[in-house]
Design brief:
Chain lengths: 226, 296
């Protein structure tokens, strides 16, 4: 599903965010990306949605070389790769349902599709009852579930979560992680960048460890630290 | 349908989110369009005036009494071949006398005394296709004076010359003023839309993140720019309509002389021109201001 070959990223200020990274992630895999701040996790995420281009190397997502991809094709890549952030990035003036429907609306879906798919993902994340609430009326966990619903509503093949539980308490963190596992079990490739050792150690999934832009560990059923 | 509703709704919201700025840019666009209309109409009037005067520019070439007919024919042929010349006609001495008598019969103050012989010379009357060439053609003919065939050359192109200069200055000046106004209008629209873009930057970020195409992001703003343009056009046309009555009655005398028509066809072209121009400026300005946000 995702293949990186010899990927390096050097920013104009000279920072080397990634160094000669090779990585292969199969369909419906669940991968934790760990490493200290500045290890290159966020850069990896940005490369996968083509918010950044690598300085060298190849990035292939779902069979498509996204480095050589035409700019006009990028929106279609992003419909295949959903993203969830630590700060949720919800629109404050829209309700839960409107936030989710927005992703369908702006990608050109018809009214009937928008209604049907919105209800589907809202019930998947367990927010059908809260559909008409505004983000400020929700708990952090509910806000993150709304963001996940929005990322899933276009039926992406890959879901990238960048510190999805960074702002959440331990109980809510578990809710979100369980939800992400369910999403993976339904066939989506999951890439979760995290600092939370507890969940990584409890889940025993594949762990990709980055340090100073280099891959230093890739374990099938790994722990947070070696 | 829902997509269209979203785009139109977002554009309308954008317009009213900052009414002062929107109204200011609408008025700027109106002012630019008024200037555009004013110059178009003035230019059309002057063009018509020039055309009328041009058709009246003639050069009279007086011929020696003892000129040989073959020489006269050859000269006439030569003048006709000049691309600036529309028509050359020969006026014999008798015809010239006849004309003089006719003029005199309508003017009782002019008493034509019968004299024994006809004092008027024969001439070639040169009508020009291009009035601005009058000076060159008459100069060329004057050079031939004193060779026995041409005795004198009479022209009066100075009025046309002046009018042509005025038209040229007005066209260039008008174009310069219009270009300046266009720049100001674009500047104001770009900034109006930039405020709208800024107000919706979160929405734009999400749109790009979930895979909206550039056009989907751009459309609401382009539409808002076109809305500003269209409203500006309506205001400008309203103002033109309001002053059209008094101005045209004041111009009636002038319009009688010059066959310039502001008929339905011209009005249609003007309205279409104003709207087209306005929409183009609005859409262009908006596109410019969204561009930065789409660069990534």
């Amino acid at each position: 599903m995702i293949r990186l070959e010899g990927v390096s990223k050097r920013y104009p200020n000279g920072t080397e965010a990634l160094r000669d990274l090779d990585l292969h992630i199969g369909p419906a895999e669940f991968v934790f990306v760990v490493g200290s701040s500045g290890a290159g996790k966020s850069t990896l995420n940005r490369l996968l949605i083509r918010e950044e281009l690598p300085s060298s190397g190849r990035v292939v997502v779902d069979g498509e070389d996204i480095v050589r991809m035409r700019r006009s094709r990028v929106p279609y890549l992003r419909r295949k790769v959903g993203v969830v952030f630590q700060d949720f990035k919800l629109l404050k003036t829209k309700t839960v349902a409107e936030n989710v429907a927005f992703a369908l609306l702006v990608t050109g879906h018809s009214g009937r599709e928008v209604r049907g798919e919105t209800e589907r993902v809202l019930s998947l994340v367990g927010l059908s009852q809260r559909r008409d609430h505004f983000p400020r009326e929700l708990s952090g966990g509910e806000q993150q579930r709304t963001a996940i619903a929005r990322a899933l509503v276009n039926r992406p093949k890959v879901l990238i979560a960048d510190e999805p539980t960074g702002n959440l308490d331990p109980v809510t963190t578990w809710e979100i992680i369980k939800l992400l596992v369910r999403v993976q079990e339904m066939g989506t490739t999951l890439l979760v960048a995290t600092h939370n050792a507890e969940i990584v150690n409890a889940l025993r999934r594949r762990v990709v460890h980055l340090d100073h832009g280099q891959l230093i560990r890739d374990e099938r059923e790994g722990l947070y630290a070696a | 349908m829902r997509r269209l509703a979203y785009v139109v709704g977002a554009a309308w919201q954008g317009f009213w989110r900052n009414p002062v700025m929107s109204v200011a840019s609408t008025l700027t666009v109106s002012l630019m369009l008024l200037l555009f209309a004013f110059f178009t109409m003035t230019d059309r009037g002057l063009q018509a005036a020039v055309a009328v005067l041009e058709s009246k520019v003639e050069i009279a070439v007086y011929l020696a009494d003892d000129a040989r007919p073959s020489d006269v024919l050859e000269l006439r042929e030569r003048i006709s071949n000049d691309p600036a010349v529309a028509e050359v006609s020969y006026v014999s001495r008798e015809q010239a006398m006849e004309r003089l008598r006719e003029i005199a019969s309508r003017r009782p103050d002019l008493q034509l005394e019968e004299i024994g012989q006809n004092p008027l010379p024969a001439s070639l009357e040169v009508k020009l296709a291009k009035a601005q060439e009058a000076r060159r053609v008459s100069g060329m003919l004057r050079d031939e004076m004193g060779r026995g065939l041409i005795t004198d050359v009479d022209d009066n192109p100075s009025v046309v010359d002046k009018l042509l200069t005025i038209t040229r200055v007005l066209s260039i000046g008008g174009l310069a003023v219009l270009a300046m106004m266009l720049f100001v209008a674009l500047f104001v629209i770009v900034n109006t839309i930039r405020i709208a873009v800024h107000a919706r930057r979160d929405e734009i970020e999400i749109m790009k993140l979930v895979g909206a195409t550039d056009w989907f992001v751009r459309w609401p703003f382009v539409l808002e720019g076109m809305l500003v343009g269209a409203l500006g056009a309506i205001v400008a046309l309203g103002a033109i309509l309001a002053v059209a009555g008094p101005v045209s009655s004041a111009l009636v005398g002038f319009l009688d002389v010059v066959p310039v028509s502001f008929g339905p066809e011209f009005i249609g072209q003007l309205v279409a021109g104003i709207f087209g121009f306005a929409l183009l400026v609005g859409a262009g300005g908006a596109t410019l201001s969204v561009r930065n946000h789409l660069a990534k």
